[in-house]
Write a structure and sequence with these properties.
With 59 residues, the chain is α+β, with helices and mostly antiparallel strands. The chain has one domain (5-58). It is built from 2 helices and 2 strands, in the order αββα. It is elongated.
Length: 59
């Protein structure tokens, strides 16, 4: 049996979100919605510096 198109689209963006979250250590994943549909998934990754580097830079 084939799945309705809406179900396939939902599974598709959910899988994209899962992959982006799994690839991040620190950051965020943003889901953009237009007219009730997910149209874009964005991810932003942060690079955290160890405390020792931050302390040295302040001196």
């Amino acid at each position: 049996m084939s799945q309705p198109t809406a179900e396939i689209e939902t599974e598709s963006w959910i899988e994209i979100v899962r992959q982006k979250v799994a690839a991040l250590r620190f950051g965020s994943v943003q889901i953009i919605v237009h007219e009730g549909r997910v149209t874009q998934v964005e991810s932003t990754e942060k690079t955290r510096l160890p405390d020792t580097l931050v302390t040295v830079a302040k001196k």
